[in-house]
């Protein structure tokens, strides 16, 4: 992997991780376009820069985490479906579904759903007024939605936001719950992947890892701040259009 390639992937991770457009899907497509060969270092790099993106959420939402203890319990319950399904199914998902065709189909279908969900939100702008009012049952069902995002191209953010809206949250609170749930989910997933990976890299590769982590952190910080304001003003439909355009463009012109 070249220095420029590492920057491109880090920016994609930071920008896309917390937007409903699938960072994993975008990195798979970007790696395919740039002809980045699969290997231990590339795999570790992609995992490491996710940690950089996670830290942006930890920094921005520290006060929210510390506000009330019950939020930890609800996040724990929301994580259960993904944890169980991921433990048993993720190796098979990664072996058979991590390819550009699955990603593009998921992007297109997810884009259509986002456009439809935007209409639902405009008709019914939520039933809850605070994240603390989410029931444990609703938290669990949001977690079920999140588990679908193990399919590359679906987007963890999109799945949990849609899950939040179907469980009575308005746009802002659905996004916030998605962000908070990202922290335990991504830390566990990234830690598990790193645990299984043999790490013996050169000084140059370690530099790329550290640099990529910082780039992902900075871009995620910017993306999260802009995303909430954008959705409040314009909704989710433009992300749906974007997903459809990216998916069709890849299928027609690149694949």
Report what the structure shows:
The chain has helices spanning 3-16, 23-33, 40-60, 62-67, 70-96, 100-123, 136-147, 156-166, 171-195, 203-234, 237-254. The chain has 11 helices and no strands. It is globular, with a radius of gyration of 17 Å. It has one domain. With 255 residues, it is mainly alpha-helical. The two termini are 21 Å apart.
Quick structural overview:
The protein is 79% helix and 0% strand. It is built from eleven helices and no strands. Helix 8 crosses helix 9 (171-195).
- Structural class of the secondary elements? mainly alpha
State the helicity in percent bands.
Answer: over 70%
Distance between the termini: 21 Å
Number of domains: 1
As a percent range, the share of strand residues is: under 5%
The number of helices is 11
Q: What characterizes the major β-sheet?
A: none
The SSE string, one letter per element, is HHHHHHHHHHH
Number of strands: 0
Oligomer state of the chains in this structure: single chain
What is the molecular shape? Answer: globular
Mean pLDDT: 87
What Rg do the Cα atoms give?
17 Å
Q: Poorly predicted ranges (pLDDT <50, ≥5 residues)?
A: none
List keywords for this structure.
255 residues, mainly alpha, 79% helix, 0% strand
Q: What is the topological layout?
A:
Layout: H1 3-16, H2 23-33, H3 40-60, H4 62-67, H5 70-96, H6 100-123, H7 136-147, H8 156-166, H9 171-195, H10 203-234, H11 237-254
Helix pairs in contact: 1-2, 1-3, 1-10, 2-6, 3-9, 3-10, 5-7, 5-9, 6-11, 7-8, 8-9
């Amino acid at each position: 992997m070249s220095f420029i390639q590492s920057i491109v992937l880090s920016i994609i991770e930071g920008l896309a991780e917390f937007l409903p457009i699938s960072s994993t899907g975008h990195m798979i497509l970007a790696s395919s376009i740039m002809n980045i060969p699969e290997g231990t270092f590339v795999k570790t790099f992609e995992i490491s820069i996710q940690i950089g993106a996670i830290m942006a959420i930890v920094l921005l939402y520290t006060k929210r985490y510390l506000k009330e203890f019950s939020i930890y319990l609800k996040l724990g319950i929301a994580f259960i479906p993904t944890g169980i399904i991921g433990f048993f199914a993720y190796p098979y998902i990664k072996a058979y579904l991590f390819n550009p065709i699955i990603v593009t189909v998921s992007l297109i279908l997810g884009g259509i759903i986002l456009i439809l969900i935007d209409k639902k939100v405009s008709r019914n702008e939520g039933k809850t007024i605070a994240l603390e009012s989410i029931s444990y049952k609703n938290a669990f069902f949001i977690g079920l939605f999140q588990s679908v995002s193990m399919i590359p191209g679906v987007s963890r953010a999109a799945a949990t936001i849609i899950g939040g809206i179907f469980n009575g949250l308005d746009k802002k609170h659905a996004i916030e719950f998605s962000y908070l749930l990202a922290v335990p989910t991504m830390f566990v997933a990234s830690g598990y992947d790193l645990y299984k990976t043999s790490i013996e890299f050169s000084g140059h590769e370690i530099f790329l890892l550290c640099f990529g982590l910082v780039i992902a952190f900075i871009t995620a910080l910017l993306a999260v701040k802009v995303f909430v304001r954008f959705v409040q003003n314009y909704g989710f439909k433009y992300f749906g259009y974007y997903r459809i355009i990216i998916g069709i463009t890849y299928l027609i012109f690149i694949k």
